[in-house]
User: Which sequence fits this backbone?
């Protein structure tokens, strides 16, 4: 998702073609070379978008033949990919654009539509942002692994929330065993696994690894794996069930989150919970935290926020049926001053009533994370930040 607050969990698509049809939001399975050669996991550096936060990371991917390269957010909260096309005018002036006329393998699928987002690329809620898109097909190449016959979207227009993003688009890394880059990894002799080393901007050296794990990032520690919740179809979110939520050593009432899937979303900056759960969690941090506006943000006077303890721990169950904790430290509470009121600072937990909880970069940058498609599991180890 190209949003750093809410991921692209729920797309609103409107087809403008003469014959009504639904936009496909997953990549097609491609055709691949017959011969498989086993290669080692491959890594590339990720850049950190630091614009008042350090909660969004992006790297390079290519589309077309010969490849045209774009900076994209590798978004575990969505399944589709979007980059600007040359059809996009002034609204894409700050982004690289895909020139379909220069690709020998390009095919337009002649379907257009709109993708809606809860924010642009910032952390503060805004009115819904949207992309006008054209559905197309071409080769996608990530770190030398090519996926022919991939369906993605060319952005033909976009609203103002995306104008100043330092990246060009999105590549969906949601759990889809037979879509995206994952079948190509298998054909290349690699497991369908990717790993993310997301770091605070003060640390740097963030990294995406495909086809395995960068063992140097483990620092001698053992990964803890947890099975993701069973998919309902060929696609599903990277989601776990939490057995406990602890705020400053106090348990949150279990009935507020029992049965609530927790989606791990690298494209979301903050954490996002249903309103009643958000209120309960914020109440255990400070009664001064109040809703700000109508779009799910909460705030507190900036003069109060930095002294507040706000350690948030989620408990999950690993593959050996043992509990383990993932913790967000107190320093993540302050998301920065709100544009509408610089004396009020936005707090970490936002509200969205869509039947899931969302855990984003505020937690992921404190753990090396492994996203294992083949075994339907996630792995974590503390990175010590």
Assistant:
């Amino acid at each position: 998702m190209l949003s750093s607050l809410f991921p692209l969990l729920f797309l609103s698509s409107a087809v403008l073609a003469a014959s009504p049809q639904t936009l496909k939001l997953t990549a097609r399975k491609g055709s691949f070379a017959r011969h498989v050669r086993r290669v080692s996991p491959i890594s590339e550096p990720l850049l950190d978008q630091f614009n008042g936060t350090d909660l969004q990371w992006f790297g390079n991917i290519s589309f077309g033949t010969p490849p045209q390269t774009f900076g994209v957010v590798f978004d575990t909260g969505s399944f589709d990919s979007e980059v600007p096309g040359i059809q996009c005018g002034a609204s894409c002036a700050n982004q690289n654009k895909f020139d379909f006329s220069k690709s020998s393998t390009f095919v337009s699928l002649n379907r257009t539509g709109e993708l809606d987002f809860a924010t642009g690329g910032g952390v503060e809620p805004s009115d819904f942002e949207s992309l006008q898109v054209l559905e197309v097909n071409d080769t996608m190449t990530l770190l030398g692994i090519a996926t022919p016959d991939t369906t993605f979207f060319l952005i033909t227009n976009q609203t103002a929330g995306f104008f100043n993003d330092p990246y060009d688009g999105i590549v969906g890394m949601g759990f889809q065993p037979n879509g995206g880059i994952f079948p190509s990894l298998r054909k290349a002799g690699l497991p369908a696994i990717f790993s993310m080393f997301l770091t605070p901007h003060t640390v740097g050296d963030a990294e995406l690894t495909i086809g395995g794990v960068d063992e140097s990032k483990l620092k001698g520690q053992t990964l803890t794996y947890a099975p993701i919740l069973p998919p309902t179809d060929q696609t599903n979110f990277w989601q776990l069930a939490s057995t406990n939520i602890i705020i400053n050593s106090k348990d949150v009432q279990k009935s507020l989150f029992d049965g609530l899937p927790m989606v791990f979303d690298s494209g979301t900056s903050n954490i996002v919970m249903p309103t009643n759960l958000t209120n309960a969690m914020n109440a255990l941090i400070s009664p001064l935290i109040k809703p700000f506006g109508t779009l799910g943000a909460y705030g507190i006077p900036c003069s109060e926020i930095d002294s507040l303890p706000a350690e948030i721990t989620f408990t999950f169950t690993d593959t050996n049926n043992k509990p383990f904790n993932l913790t967000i430290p107190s320093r993540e509470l302050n998301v920065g001053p709100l544009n509408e009121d610089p004396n009020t600072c936005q707090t970490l937990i936002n509200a969205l009533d869509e039947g899931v909880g969302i855990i984003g970069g505020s937690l992921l940058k404190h753990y090396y994370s492994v996203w294992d498609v083949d075994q339907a599991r996630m792995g974590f180890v503390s990175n010590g930040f």
Observations:
- The chain has a mean pLDDT of 86.
- The first strand starts at residue 42 and ends at 45.
